[in-house]
Design a protein that fits this description.
Order of helices and strands: HHH
Radius of gyration: 19 Å
Oligomer: single chain
Strand content: under 5%
Low-confidence stretches: none
Structural class: mainly alpha
Helix content: over 70%
Number of helices: 3
Number of domains: 1
Shape: elongated
Distance between the termini: 6 Å
Length: 89
């Protein structure tokens, strides 16, 4: 296995990690900013108020995106296993 193959495999792995994590992280970010704006407008500075909407939104996003996430991970894993003979040369 050459250095170029290792770097390419690492790059593809990082890309898959970012693709799989992005939907949940983006929803958490948007909900967090929205709740923070509401807190700033109403001057309610309760720290625990942010957690419940973020958790609920992240769980909804996870359930909605889970079939796509599993498909991406299965495709990556299948590709990885099919290329094992190429990697051991």
């Amino acid at each position: 296995m050459s250095i170029d193959m290792v770097v390419g495999l690492m790059g593809e792995t990082v890309k898959v990690i970012l693709l799989v994590a992005a939907p949940v992280l983006l929803v958490g970010l948007v909900v967090g900013v929205f709740v923070s704006l509401i807190q700033a407008m109403t001057q309610v500075q309760e720290i625990t108020l942010v957690f419940v909407p973020k958790i609920v939104a992240c769980l909804v996003a996870l359930v909605a995106a889970l079939p796509w996430m599993i498909g991406v991970l299965i495709k990556f894993t299948t590709n990885l296993f099919q290329n094992i003979p190429t990697y051991i040369r």
